[in-house]
Amino acid sequence: MNRYAVGVRRWWAVPAALLLLILVCWTVGASQVPVPSLTGGLSGAQLAYFTPVLVVVTTMYCLDRNLRGAESTAVVPVHLLDTAALVLTVVLAHLAGFLVGMDIARNITVLLALALVTRRLANEATATAAGLLLLLLNLILGRAYDPGGHASPTWWALTLYPAGSLPAWVVALVLFALALAIPGARHRA
Predict the structure, then answer these.
(1) What is the pLDDT of residue 66?
(2) Of 16, 61, 136, 188, whose CB neighbour count within 10 A is largest?
(3) Any transmembrane segments, and where (predicted)?
(4) Residue of 144, 121, 118 lying closest to 132 (CA atoms)
């Protein structure tokens, strides 16, 4: 199964994507891009906010690669290998979070959970797009302004919460655990 994980699934691409994420975050730093907000005005978002999509795209690429005949006759269930690789991806993302910010590690966890659920309903491409859509919706609709004019995330905009928000971390980990627990990955002919 080691050869299958490396040669077919290509799980080695996920640590490479995490290294790319670190390099991109260090390169762009605190650079901002303007984002329209439906709650009023034009706000900005750091470019690093979008970097978790790199890891989700790579993870979905790895999950999409398979040999159905080999998987159906394998002694070791491949879904256990995939689950272990997904958990390792989140652990490595949290290690990378010490270098780029723990909010990015939390957002990787949230986007992977969303991607895994979407993948079971549709396909890998849709799962990747769902993560990017969630990030954009959080930016456009997920900010509330207090009477002083300061922006804060609404209760549902999990990706906008600060890195130290314990409720956001708990929700992210629960969502990821639930996404892993959903049985029956969709199989196409």
Answers:
(1) 77
(2) 61
(3) 75-98, 129-146, 166-185
(4) 118
Q: How many CB atoms lie under 10 A from the CB of residue 142? A: 24
Residue 1 confidence (pLDDT) above 60:
no
Residue 81 lies in a domain: yes
Nearest to 128 by CA among 153, 141, 111, 151: 111
In-domain check, residue 189: no
Q: pLDDT for 157-186, tens place per residue?
A: 899 899 999 999 999 999 999 999 987 544
- CA nearest neighbour of 83 among 110, 104, 55, 62: 62
Nearby residues of 29 by Cβ (< 8 Å), 6 or more positions away: 48
Domain assignment present for 187 = no
Q: Which residues constitute the domain of residue 147?
A: 2-181
Among residues 77, 97, 89, the alpha carbon closest in space to that of 183 is found at 77
Reported residue count of the chain is: 189
Beta bridge partners of 35: 43
